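Database export, one record per block. Field names are fixed; values are copied verbatim from the stored entry.
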Amino acid sequence: MSAQPSFADEKFIAAYVDENQDYYIAKFNLVKEGKSYTGFNLAALIFPTIWFTYRKLYIYAFVYLILQQVILTGGHHILLGMASIQHAPRFVQPLIINLTISIFNVVASLNANKIYLLRANQIINKLSATTTNEAALLEACKKSGGGNNFACFLLILALLIINLSIQYAKFT
């Protein structure tokens, strides 16, 4: 029998989350109840890499970015096999790319809340091991959590540079 994980108090989750506290507290309660599905995250559906980056889930953002770039730059050949894609009508390749990325976006949006809240809980538990002062812990949660607008700006800039260089390479 596996041990029940220790869940942080809602006030620490609220301090960690910073924005949209009520939304994430409701989702966190579902995680605490052992629910596997915590809801659909629209922001993670539309801009998963940016959402992961904003919520400081950098490893997920990096993995998703690499996956997405592989698909955009030719990974779809692996999915279908080289011979079958070369003889297909012109609309098939963009269709496969868009469908593949859409599937990954849906998977990301269905799991984003749970991933974020489990990571928040993990960080809060680590922080609570370093201090017994509630005010200090709340402040540490605020500093560790929230969103990172600057990282999102850098990500968007990097995506623009990557995609422009890929397009430039295709036409030269």
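Remark 1: The chain has one domain: 10-170.
Remark 2: The longest helix spans residues 92-128.
End of record.
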